[in-house]
Amino acid sequence: MDMNNTILITGASSGIGKACAERLAKTGSKLILTARRGDRLETLADALRKEGTEVYTAILDVRDRAACEAFVDAIPSEFRNIRVLLNNAGLAAGLGPVQSGDTDHWDRMIDTNLKGLLYVSRAVIPLMYGVEGAQIVNIGSVAGKEVYPGGNVYCASKHAVDALTRSMRIDLLEKGIRVSSVSPGMVETEFSIVRFDGDSDRAATVYKGLEPLLADDIADAVNYIVTAPFRITVADILIFPAAQASSRDVLRRN
Ligand code: NDP
Ligand code: 8X3
User: Fold this and answer.
1) Ligand nearest to the CA of 95
2) pTM
3) How far apart are CA 6 and CA 189, in angstroms?
4) pLDDT tens for each residue of the chain, 254 residues long
5) Is 247's C-beta closer than 6 angstroms to any atom of ligand 2?
6) What residue spans define the domains of the chain?
7) Cα torsion at 48, 51, 56, 58 (round to 10°)?
8) If you classify domain 6-239 with CATH, what class do you get?
9) Ligand 2 neighbourhood includes 12 CB (under 6 angstroms)
10) Residue 130: which residues within 8 A CB-CB, separation 6 or more?
């Protein structure tokens, strides 16, 4: 497999995106790492460069359509042969009934998880034309397969990611670009801290009494998709911690 190409990751400053950057650096590809927190990106990029990976970083808020387009225009020539786009940037904000939902939370989730994924994909896809083995991997969620109490808008945004993954796979068939998703259950990252507006005690209760997935477990799944022979399209990998059987079936030991 020719690895003289580039992997672009959104939301690489934390959690699953950061773990994917560390794992996919080992493929020998160049990396483009984006997120809003540039200091974290630089720390990660410096560590990866020390291991021999070529890394380009860019501060990018995926909600900003013009910024997504300007970011792609500014990618240096040596990083423009993008084979893999990993649409990972995303979040949940709040957990509660729709009738008392925070509309700013709704906007943030829809603008990031749905519109941001679209803006980045629309801008990046033309760079992938003609790149052998090109593929897009979207980070979905079990929340894109099922709904749970209080999950309303987050679940809707991830159902939209699931629909877009399947739609993009059809649209991009003629372009030779494969489209996959990885749909995790509970992964302990900064996800719940963000969801509960920085309340780390409440975030800890989400994983209390069970062993959640690690960001590295999701990076393993993404790595499988990204390094699979080019004849393979992995449609989706739905992955739970052993203590979880569905969004609502979780075994807690204390
Ligand atoms: P983290 O909060 O640890 O990481 C989220 C990443 O997304 C950060 O790098 C953050 O970077 C980035 N991000 C958020 N908003 C934006 C934005 N507007 N523009 C650019 N980047 C943004 O959470 P996870 O690693 O867990 O989440 C990654 C993905 O995995 C998300 O799509 C999430 O929905 C999904 N997921 C997570 C699960 C879990 O249980 N943890 C389960 C299923 C799916 P920065 O803040 O620097 O911009
Ligand atoms: C994150 C997993 O179960 O909190 O997508 O929706 S869950």
Assistant:
1) 2
2) 0.98
3) 25
4) 556 799 999 999 999 999 999 999 999 999 999 999 999 999 999 999 999 999 999 999 999 999 999 999 999 999 999 999 999 999 999 999 999 999 999 999 999 999 999 999 999 999 999 999 999 999 999 999 999 999 999 999 999 999 999 999 999 999 999 999 999 999 999 999 999 999 999 999 999 999 999 999 999 999 999 999 999 999 999 999 999 999 999 999 97
5) yes
6) 6-239
7) 10
8) alpha beta
9) no
10) none
